[in-house]
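#structure-requests
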Amino acid sequence: MCGNFLLKAAAKKSRAYTAKGRELLKSQAKESEKNTNPYSWKFSVEDGETLNQYTATFHTCGVCFLMTKLGLKEYIPAMCSLDYDMAALNNTEFSREFTLAGGGKYCDCHYNHIAIN
C-alpha cells in the first residue's frame, strides 16, 4: 500500500512538525471530542520535548468500531501496522505501547520526526 503515489505524497506533506501545523492538529483533536459518529476518532495531542515530537492519544477508533461490528476484529492490528509505514515515509520514528485493538484503553501514538538537512 505504501507504494501508492498519493499515499506517499500525503505522508510527506505532514505539517504537524511546524508551530502552525501543530496548532491545527490540536484544534482537530479538540473538535474530535465532539464526534458522535461511532465510525470516527476521538483523540488528544500533547507536545513532546521539541517541535519534532508529539503524542496523539486515540480514545476511540472508527476502524476498530467498524471491524469489530463486522466480526473482523482479528484484522485490526494489520490495519494499524500502516501507522508505522506512513511515519517512515515522512522520516518519522513511530511507536506505541497500548492499542485499542489489543485491549488497551487507548492507542498512544508517539511521533519523533527526524529532520533531514
